Amino acid sequence: xxxxxxxxxxxxxxxxxxxxxxxxxxxxxxxxxxxxxxxxxxxxxxxxxxxxxxxxxxxxxxxxxxxxxxxxxxxxxxxxxxxxxxxxxxxxxxxxxxxxxxxxxxxxxxxxxxxxxxxxxxxxxxxxxxxxxxxxxxxxxxxxxxxxxxxxxxxxxxxxxxxxxxxxxxxxxxxxxxxxxxxxxxxxxxxxxxxxxxxxxxxxxxxxxxxxxxxxxxxxxxxxxxxxxxxxxxxxxxxxxxxxxxxxxxxxxxxxxxxxxxxxxxxxxxxxxxxxxxxxxxxxxxxxxxxxxxxxxxxxxxxxxxxxxxxxxxxxxxxxxxxxxxxxxxxxx
Length: 333
Description:
CATH architecture: 3-Layer(aba) Sandwich
Low-confidence stretches: none
CATH class: Alpha Beta
Strand order of the largest sheet: 1-2-3-5-4-6-7-10-11
CATH superfamily: Alpha/Beta hydrolase fold, catalytic domain
Number of domains: 1
Shape: globular
Order of helices and strands: EEEEHEHEHEHEHEHEHEHH
Mean pLDDT: 94
Number of helices: 9
CATH topology: Rossmann fold
């Protein structure tokens, strides 16, 4: 890999980005790239490991509070905007579209290579949210089966997308329908009910977070047949069982709140069925710790302050108990 070129990022002082070209899009939408954002360590911070954050659908990296948390624990922090997502999306490209989740292997390879260049020899903890929480375990399992040596030493999944929510019919005949549509009309969009999740987060509603609604629309990007088929194929692979080869922590809410009739939308997962996360968590292989966080949102680390504090306390405890593998030169005590 050639030397990285870092430039200023939209997050402002203390953040830089590096664009990595990945060549021609297999899905015919021009040239694709991935963008890595790094938080520059401050003079007083001791760096002994690294974190790579991978976002979910209709999302991108903007969570500076999370980056500050990991920096305080001794990790250099990097956020990844996958191809056609966030900073990496180019004009004319369908947001977040990939006909096969294996396409993201190149993005993850490039990001890990860049971190190795920036933090040579340091172990990497991957943190992934929602769809990213499906993409990353599949990647780690493929790499392990291929005999690849990665710097990844641990995995943290924040409300990973382990199954298709909704009625059982969607997971049977609906999945077979997707297989046909993905071949004939991969870019066909599905009209889905509007979600209340975005407004619970953004400062334009009642939320705390000032993210770019062009990169992360309040109602999300359209879901396409080809992309959803790729996700369903990923679900099937996960359900057959993986062996990711590293310890994992799964954070999730204790309940789902899809509509205001279900309860307070600020205090539940408004996107996924948390029972499915619980059901399939054991499919990762190896040591897996699952912690339901009472009243957490879909993005657990964007929950209301007191809930968020509980989630960070759980995360800090898990990092501490695994520091002998996640950080350099630390002897487990």
